Amino acid sequence: MSDSRILVGEMTYIGPNCFLGAHRHPLKIGRDCMIGARCYLITANHETCAKPYREQGFRGADVVIGDNVWLGCGVVVLPGVNIGDNAVVGAGAVVTKDVPAGETWAGIPARAISSVNRSQT
């Protein structure tokens, strides 16, 4: 079983009413990050199968937030997601897959909308 810890880097701000959940897998947040209010970062979620909910297990994976990442208010980051250094995730986004370094993502589910290598579309 993986380590069940929450690690937060230096100079990282975590806004009010955020939920940081590390169930059986670590949640690692880099340095110099800004995490907006009401964000929800989890390393495990219920299984989705035909069993009654109370009998379902959990599935999970590590979550890693790189350095100098900005998560807007109300962002949800699901298990197994890695967000690269210098990335931005827009308010209210639901991140279901990895965000490459230097990209800006938004939406439900979150998708790329710009990058440090190209102008906004």
UniProtKB/TrEMBL annotation:
Cross-referenced InterPro entries: Hexapep (IPR001451), Hexapep_transf_CS (IPR018357), Hexapeptide_acetyltransf (IPR051159), Trimer_LpxA-like_sf (IPR011004)
Protein name: Acyltransferase
The organism's place on the tree of life at top rank: Bacteria
Keyword annotations: Acyltransferase, Repeat, Transferase
KW Signal (keyword) present: no
Any GO MF annotation of the entry: acyltransferase activity
